[in-house]
Amino acid sequence: MSNTINSLKNRREKIYHPLMIAAGVLLWIMVISAIGSHWDDPKTGAMIKLYVGYGVAIVIFLWIAALAYRATAFGNMILLGPKQFPELHAMVVEGASEIGLNEPPKTFLYNSHGVFNAFARRLFGGRYVFLTSALVEASSDAQVRFVIGHELGHHAAGHLNPWINTLKLPAKLIPFLGKAYSRSREYTCDNAGAYLSKDFHASRSALQMLGCGCKRLNSAMNCDAFVEQEAMVPPIFGFLTEICRSHPRLTRRVAAIKSTVQNTSGASLANNVFEPGFRQEQPESGR
Fold it and tell me: Phi-psi category of 125—alpha, beta or left, where left has phi over 0 and alpha has psi -120 to 50?
């Protein structure tokens, strides 16, 4: 992992990540030990073998589904490249290099029928990023760089490593721990997006666009007013809904970018990552 992405990691992720691995390894040992000790037991052995069979079937199904998805991507989506939307492709290549990836992920643009989204995947060892047409159409170049940077952050931070994720898998059974870890990873990738965008306003508004989703109103969004909505979230139910989500509330994510930029004076993140080229700008007038 590069020093760049390590310095961008959310502090909670640095706590939850080793906890997830330790808990996952411990639970794997317990499960394998229980299976081994009861495999030939006449009462429980049959049930254990049945569940092991279910597990193997699920793994095979996921493997086939990944093959099908990759085929669908190459056959129906638009693969960015030097001859296909070279400006977008250049954002991916430059961002991947800057954040410490050895090679840029294969990046696809696809028709989302109005849905705003982007995501990263690992398929058979290959790195992939998927961008929806609606998000790219409604966003400025700086906002698109933020979105691309966020997804590159998942790859650079090792969030999609299949072997590490397998180790951590049983830890998701621990109430709330897996969701908390997932939310911390999103903050890390928001930092990566802001780092690559190098545009304070665009980084915040790119997140707010997920809530707005309107190209016509893109340039008129007031991020400070949106952040102020966080104070209106009912404390109890805001907490209860948050702990069950894999992603933090958008108001919190937008506020976290502001906090990261404004409160890191003297910290290594500000000194080594954000200050060079990172600017605060007025809202753009549109594309």
Answer: left
- Both tokens assigned to 53: 């069979």
Domain boundaries, the chain: 3-274
- Over the stretch 75-130, which tens digit does the pLDDT of each residue have? 999 999 999 999 999 999 999 999 999 999 999 999 988 888 899 999 888 999 99
Neighbouring CB atoms inside 10 A of 278's CB total 16
The two most distant CA atoms of the chain are separated, in Å, by: 73
Please list, residue by residue across 151-175, b when 16 or more beta carbons sit within 10 angstroms of its beta carbon and e when fewer do.
Answer: bbbbbbbebbeeeeeebbebbbeee
Residue 181 phi/psi, 5-degree rounding, is -65, -45
Burial class (CB in 10 A: 0-12, 13-18, 19+), 206: buried
Q: Alpha helices, DSSP H only, in 39-140?
A: 45-76, 86-99, 133-138
| Nearest residue to 149 via CA among 216, 202, 83, 221 | 202
pLDDT of residue 268: 43
Question: Which pLDDT belongs to residue 139?
Answer: 80
Positions in the chain whose pLDDT score sits under 70? 1, 258-287
Q: What is the pTM of this model?
A: 0.86
Here the tokens at position 67 are: 């093959």
Q: What tokens does 253 get?
A: 């994510």
Between CA 202 and CA 192 the distance in angstroms is 13
Nearest Cα residue to 196 out of 97, 79, 81, 269: 97
